[in-house]
Write the structure tokens for this entry.
Amino acid sequence: MAVRDTPPFRADHVGSLLRPSELLQARGRFKAGEIDADTLRAIEDDAIRDVIQLQHDAGVRTVTDGEFRRGSWHMDFIYSLGGIRQVDGESIHVRFRNEEGELDYAPPAMLVAEKITLTRTVFAEAFAFLRDNALGDQTPKLTIPSPSMVHYRGGTSAIDRDVYPELGAFWDDLIAAHVAELRTAHTGHLDRATLAAARELLDDVFGDEMTDEAWEHALGGIHALAWDRGELIGHASVVQRRLLHLGRALRTGYVEGVAVRADRRGEGHGAALMEPLEAVIRGGYEVGALGAADAAADFYAVRGWKQWRGTTSALTPAGIVRTEDEDASIYVLPISAPLDLRGELTCDWRDGEVW
Ligand SMILES: CC(C)(COP(=O)(O)OP(=O)(O)OC[C@H]1O[C@@H](n2cnc3c(N)ncnc32)[C@H](O)[C@@H]1OP(=O)(O)O)[C@@H](O)C(=O)NCCC(=O)NCCS
């Protein structure tokens, strides 16, 4: 059998690895207030480096951090979703017995107390540490529970029916949060191969327009990625900029590098990339903005983006300079900032194309 260089590999490992006793003791001491979070993290870091080496020595091509930073591999994810609260005292109690005696175990319980959202990429920092410490050709891997596990733990009794009188809306929000977790990551949490694949895709789609400066504009924020069988077929990102409008510098989520591979257009990938980025904009910014290619203007318009009807300028080192060539191609996504679409809109300065 040929050796595979890309996942899925022929042999893989699933599940948490046994936490070493130093780590369990450190967790206990942290809970008791005897050590601080930095000390606990340093102990986790050491234990994870050891377990990376263990997996390397065992010859498996994927590597996990053993879920050493989590108390419970799945509940720690579930509690990190917006709208879900940990509850005490309403749990199921289970009694285990082995040769050393009996052990009472109460699995943690939860309540869906507000609408479910993804407020940040869960476990992103943990993944970045694993990626940066993986050895040789190890592929870093992260486990997350399926959406059904949120329902399975407590059933409908764990869902506040004032928040979700109708279960369909609960599933829609829960699945949207998982899709966002799977599709989006900050530039700082992407590995080099993924960034290289994104650059290559944008080079293919935009040709000479994809200069180093244009690529740079797409970095430093949240990327949405569409994969198919290990190949990157779509990319978009949102970065923070300031747009001056009606006397204020608006916190703006600016969309860059939207592209779907030519042979995969019209299959819904563009919409699936924009959806989580628009959720980021709605949650984190006062307005969304982008410079649309003529051919893509309607793609944004049907999603609720509004064409700017007024004048556009840039705040350059030499002062405010009109950018009349761009006037018709700027689109905004209204969120909370008052907008006069026929007024003036001025972007902050950057190298290359300012809009
Ligand atoms: C624009 C682009 C990202 C759209 O991606 P896509 O995967 O083909 O889009 P989807 O299949 O998700 O289409 C979503 C909806 O938008 C519509 N749509 C897609 N592209 C459109 C376009 N160029 N103009 C008008 N409508 C468009 C689709 O018909 C679909 O509508 P529906 O839900 O009613 O069927 C893709 O065509 C692309 O990469 N183009 C080249 C690069 C580019 O222009 N990028 C934008 C730079 S600003």
